[in-house]
Amino acid sequence: MSTITWIGVVIIIAAGSFFVGGWFTKKRFKQEELEQQAEKAQSELEQYRQDVADHLDSTNKLINKLKDNYEQLAHHVQQSDHLLLSKKDLDDSQPFFSKETTEQLQASLSQRPERHSSNIVHDSQPTDYAAGESGLFRDEKKDTEQRQSA
Prior knowledge:
The chain is mainly α. It has helices at about 5-90, 100-110, 140-150. The longest helix has about 90 residues, at about 5-90. It is elongated and about 160 Å long. The mean pLDDT is about 80.
């Protein structure tokens, strides 16, 4: 073989090697890129799991706090109920009104006239009745007519 043939074969092999090497290099770069994306996705997934775990932990703490508050409220209501029921049983002798008010009420009741039975018809006028003409029923026309004629 001649040198020109050898040079042609070397150039063809070099060009083929160049294209095959480029193809393998591109494949390798794509593989590295995919590996980076997979690692990124894995780290995002781990971060998401951590966020969810933190959220559930804080929710659990809030639920426990709510449960404790509810138990305290229920205990307080039971104590108040017990206190009110025990005070009701013990303080029946305590008057509703103060001593001075009770004395004033008794004095005003003793000054009232005794009531008669409801079957008896009263001939007297009610206490709020006005004797004679008053208000709208007063005859003012007669007064003005008498003044005009005089």
